[in-house]
Design goal:
The protein is of the alpha/beta class. Helix content is about 25%, strand content about 25%. Strand 11 and strand 12 form a beta hairpin. Helix 4 packs parallel to helix 5.
Length: about 250
């Protein structure tokens, strides 16, 4: 199974239309089994931005998809619009995969929070699952991400979420929010962060990107895909190979 994660589209003043459409072409050509959208489809949660984002998302041909909201989507009472434009189930199950959506956005707040009831729900859901590969998607980060400045506070109850994931034998966690591709392994929990698909506001890695995840026989493999650029193993991102952050940036103007 091929899963594509896109995040932080940010329809609004910083949105890069040309990059988005190039990403659509690439992802449609890959023909993924599942598209995961981990929040911040809009910049300010405005009705016009939701309308624009909804039209843009129609260009993806993958019919099986899940959405979760970001802090920018919940601005300007955008939380009233998100479910209208991007209805999504909290859980998806296939023969070999379970995906759970953890909602961390809160109205008019940049910081995130899962909440006690949702954490208990998540732990019970994951504990009951014995056969499928277990994946959790969320917008906010559980662990601070390098190169993202002083606003490195994870969700307020990150410790409780991490404990629930650790107890439940989670296979993979996918996050967005920080616009910085990265990967952590904490205890038995692999956490992969997405960059921004189409925003000008990039941190530490100066190219728009999305994540590719392959699930096979209870195991996963993941890569970072530069829009209009190479597919990279996350080991290269973590190692910070010389020139890795700048070459794709320059290639955008080649």
């Amino acid at each position: 199974m091929l899963i594509i994660q896109i995040s932080d589209i940010h329809v609004g003043p910083e949105f890069r239309d040309d990059v988005f459409h190039r990403a659509v072409d690439e992802i449609n050509e890959l023909d993924p089994d599942l598209l995961l959208v981990t929040g911040d489809l809009t910049e300010n949660g405005l009705l016009s931005q939701y309308e624009g984002a909804a039209e843009l998302m129609k260009q993806f041909t993958c019919r099986r998809r899940l959405y979760t909201s970001g802090n920018h989507d919940y601005r300007s009472t955008g939380y009233l619009l998100f479910r209208r434009f991007f209805p999504s189930k909290p859980v998806l199950k296939t023969r070999d995969l379970l995906v759970a959506t953890l909602g961390t956005a809160r109205p008019e707040r940049n910081d995130g929070e899962a909440g006690h009831r949702q954490i208990v729900w998540l732990e019970n859901l994951l504990r009951r699952e014995r056969r499928r590969f277990k994946l959790v998607m969320m917008h906010h980060h559980l662990v601070p991400v390098p190169d993202t400045g002083p606003n490195t506070i994870p969700i307020l109850d990150a410790g409780d979420v991490l404990r629930a994931l650790d107890r439940s034998g989670i296979g993979l966690v996918l996050c967005g929010h920080r616009h910085r591709p990265w990967k952590w392994a904490l205890n038995r929990i692999p956490i992969i962060h997405a960059g921004s698909l189409s925003s000008e506001r990039l941190r530490g890695f100066f190219s728009n990107s999305y994540n590719m995840v392959e699930i096979n026989k209870g195991q996963y493999r993941a890569w970072l895909k530069i829009v209009n650029g190479p597919k990279l193993d996350f080991k290269r991102i973590i190692a910070g190979e010389s020139g890795l952050a700048t070459i794709p940036f320059l290639n955008r103007y080649a």
